[in-house]
Write a structure and sequence with these properties.
By secondary structure, the chain is of the alpha+beta class. The chain contains 16 helices and 22 strands. The strands form five sheets. A six-stranded mixed beta sheet has the order 3-2-1-4-6-5, with helices on both faces. It has a five-stranded antiparallel beta sheet with strand order 7-8-11-10-9. A hairpin with a 3-residue loop joins strand 20 and strand 21. The longest helix is centred in the middle third of the chain and has 30 residues. The N and C termini lie far apart (54 Å).
Length: 474
Amino acid sequence: MMPLLDRVRRAIDRERLMPPASRVLVAVSGGADSVALLLLLRQLAAVCGFELAGLAHFNHQLRGGESDGDQAFCRDLAARLGVRFETGSADVAALAREAHVSIEVAARRARYAWFADAAVRLGADRVATGHTQDDQAETVLLRLLRGAGSSGLGGIHPMRGIFVRPLLDVRRPDLVVWLDEVGEPHREDSSNRDLTIPRNWIRHHLLPSLATHLNADIKGVLARQALVFRDESALLDNMAEQARASIESAAVGGGIALDAAGLTMLPKAIARRVVRKSLVRVNDSRFFGFDHAEHVLALATGGHSGQAADLPGIRVELNAGICVLTRRDSRRAAAAVGFNYRLSVPGRVEIPECACVIDAVEAQVDVAQVVRNNDVVRNQAACIDGAAAAGGLWVRSRVPGDVLRPFGLRRRKKLQDVLVDRKVPRADRDRVPIVVNRDGRILWVAGQISSDEGRVTEHTQSVVFLTLTRLGDI
């Protein structure tokens, strides 16, 4: 078998995960997978030409002293290896209750949002996580049992946005053996033994049974199957995008209009994708699956003019051969009064009209690193020159005459045109949070685009990190 280090390097090169000169922040829980990932990337950094930005650890506050022990272990590991240590935490149990989601979903949302913010602070353009082939197999089975289509069965992607997974070709036991060989300790998460968590039941019962009775290489089989599904799904998505261009248009009064006849003439696999993409574009705060797409297709195929149906957060109406998709809160949104909130630095402001929270944190950073990564656009976070925020920040709704200079452009542009270009539904445009300074200059169209007004330069003394957290549909 190829040595572990060579296998990881091959995956990095094959998937172009970490190009030369990239800065990589490593997410470390303290478990064997992530500890091995950090050590392997530390060895490969000079060979592959990337730079380690640091070790990032997120404390979910779910296991009391054990969670704190993981955090202390990661801090000590970073100090021993001489890498920068970043840590964050959240009361994930409380977040799950507030959002009415599972602990696992709340933990993932909080963790990934914090990792993205940490990457901005450290000037990193990649965040590496320790997902292995075992995780891939578990994910494929979990999604299969929940009824996922080919997109879901594609499993964990080697690269999704700034997040990269260099260990998807590696088995978890191989990492444990390697750590033992090099004499590196790691932590064990007691919650991994909780069989009430579906993933753990699959890990400890279903996969071993499949390996014993059907195929000893079941994990490898599932990982290869995920690759096939990803490739086929990418092809279908491309075909759906081409088809959508001729079928979809903006609906009068907001929302999306789909030509019913054109939709029903498409192959079912493509038509479902067109519908799901349109549903998400109308309301990206909800999940839309097979049944929702089928409901719209049934209406397009056999419905009568004037017939309507309600999906999660969306109203579907068939009018003269056109399926119109609109947010069910669009009337309320259209009638909503404008908002204007003061945002302290540091501080947090909740905007109920937008069902979101914006946080502001001021920090001293390596400005040169931030300047080098100015071209990295992250819609859910922004990094602005602290001087631009002097005198305070406000978060408001748009007003007539709003203009800004989008990041990287030399000319100013109407905010209305920016929102149209970003394909923000008309009904949602008054709900987009606009961050402005005391002079009223737009610094960030939250969730959409940054302004050049707050650009970080070599003269910057401090920066303000702004992050947007969605709280779901109001």
